[in-house]
């Protein structure tokens, strides 16, 4: 199929860990993928193959950790 445009807004944490391989495969197949990621997160890292746009959040990584605990 022809590649399309996808906008991905994953949740922080395990949601992204499950979604990342799918996003990478879609990018490999010719889709133009843009992933919106918060500036502060645990496991969300950019890789080649798709575009990442960061957005500011009001919490620090320490506050994120405290909220999880």
**What's the pLDDT, averaged over the residues?**
79
Number of strands: 3
- Tally of domains: 1
The number of helical segments is: 2
Specify Rg, calculated over alpha carbons.
13 Å
Largest sheet: 3 strands, parallel
Helix content: 25-40%
Question: Whole-Å distance between the termini?
Answer: 44 Å
Query: Strands across the major sheet, in which order?
Result: 1-2-3
Low-confidence segments, given as residue ranges, are none
Oligomer: single chain
Keywords: Transferase
Pfam families: UDPGT (PF00201)
Protein name: UD19 glucuronosyltransferase
InterPro entries: UDP_glucos_trans
Please tell me about this protein's structure.
With 69 residues, this protein is α/β, with parallel strands linked by helices. The protein has one domain. The protein is 33% helix and 23% strand. It has a three-stranded parallel sheet with strand order 1-2-3, covered by helices on one side. Helix 1 links the parallel strand 1 and strand 2. The mean pLDDT is 79.
Please specify the SSE layout and strand pairing:
Elements: E1 5-8, H1 14-28, E2 32-38, E3 51-55, H2 61-68
Parallel strand pairs: 1-2, 2-3
InterPro entries: UDP_glucos_trans
Protein name: UD19 glucuronosyltransferase
GO molecular function, one term: UDP-glycosyltransferase activity
């Amino acid at each position: 199929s022809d590649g399309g445009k996808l906008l991905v807004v994953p949740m922080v944490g395990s949601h992204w860990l499950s979604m990342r391989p799918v996003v990478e495969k879609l990018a490999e197949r010719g889709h133009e993928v843009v992933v919106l990621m918060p500036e502060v997160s645990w496991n969300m890292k950019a890789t080649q193959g798709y575009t990442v746009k960061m957005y500011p959040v009001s919490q620090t990584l320490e506050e994120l950790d405290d909220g999880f605990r």
